[in-house]
Amino acid sequence: MLTLTLNKNILAIALPSLRISPLLLIGIPTIVLLYAAAFYGIYLSVVYIQSIGSGIGVFSGLFHDFLMEILPSQLLVSSLLPIKPRKLNKSEQEEFVLTENLKAILVGLILGDISGEKRSVNTRLLFKQGVCHEDYLRHLYELFASFCSQGPKIKNLKPDTRTGKVYTKIWFNTYSLPCFNELYETFYLNGVKIVPKNIGDLLTPLGLAYLICDDGNFSNSHQAVRISTNSFSFDEVQLLVSVLSAKFNLNCTVNKDGAGFRLRISKESLPVLQALLKDIMPPMMMYKIGL
User: Fold this and answer.
1) Contact of 24 with 11, CB cutoff 8 Å
2) 209-255 pLDDT, tens per residue?
3) What is the DSSP string of 198-255?
4) 210 touches 239 (CB < 8 A)
5) Matching fold, domains 87-192 and 195-291
6) What does pTM read for this prediction?
7) What single string gives the DSSP state of each residue in 76-96?
């Protein structure tokens, strides 16, 4: 709660010299309380405050320094309060445009962890990572902040049914926007994520870098990069293998992993992969390609 203080020395000097009546003297604490209530309201404008100050005549000078002391702190408190997101109208939604780099990054991210959600007409994107990757998630937010109404949030999930362990996630989502519709229609079929047939035309080194950021891991023992493609069919993973081989000269295999399939970039291709990605990989994720 905001605490207001008033310099006693100022009152001691100022009040006698003003020769104020007892009635006005009694009214001073009331005025102070009114100002406290006014500043505590987060919607009160500076213009309104100034109009109150002008209405107290000879006391306005007395309170000037007092107001200047508490105004900055009040504005700081107000700026830290959460802002309710505003719904965009159609013309505002259509103003959002993806750059070529952001499109390339999203190709990799959609193959990875982020999900698209078609809401009525337009699509929003949901980004989620374990809290251990908070720096990476915040890096993604910096890239897509202009497409979002709010920043990342941290949430404890329900206890795991097998282990009872509680996992903590950090996440954010974008507005529902028409600029995401083409990506949703390319990577989703009947609401299920797929590897599109034209992935060879869509996947760039930048997209591969962010796919590995999301779903890749580095095997120290085998000096190989593995990508968790378990949600895709064998044919879809094999399609990715053929693209990585033909487009980036990477030797890859498909390995069975539980009920799904995992893509593996071989030890022999590690120097090629590192040379391809080392200058575009987010620094906090370089370890995923052994750097």
Assistant:
1) no
2) 999 999 999 999 999 999 999 999 999 999 999 999 999 999 999 99
3) THHHH--HHHHHHHHHHHEEEETTTTEEEE--TTS-HHHHHHHHHHHHHHH---EEEE
4) no
5) yes
6) 0.70
7) HHHHHSPPPPPPP-HHHHTT-
Which class does domain 195-291 fall in? alpha beta
Q: Are 192 and 116 in contact (CB under 8 A)?
A: no
CATH number of 87-192: 3.10.28.10
Q: pLDDT, tens digit, for every residue of 49-71?
A: 344 444 444 444 444 454 445 44
Q: Which of 60, 64, 68 is nearest to 18 (CA)?
A: 60
Spatial neighbors of 268 by CB under 8 A, at least 6 apart, are 251
For residue 115, the surrounding DSSP H or E stretch is strand 115-119
From CA 19, how far away is CA 152, in angstroms rounded?
57
Kindly give, in sequence order, each residue whose CB lies less than 8 Å from that of residue 216, ignoring residues fewer than 6 positions away.
Answer: 225, 226, 227, 228, 288, 289
The ranges assigned to domains in the chain are: 8-80, 87-192, 195-291
Return the structure tokens found at 171.
């996440």
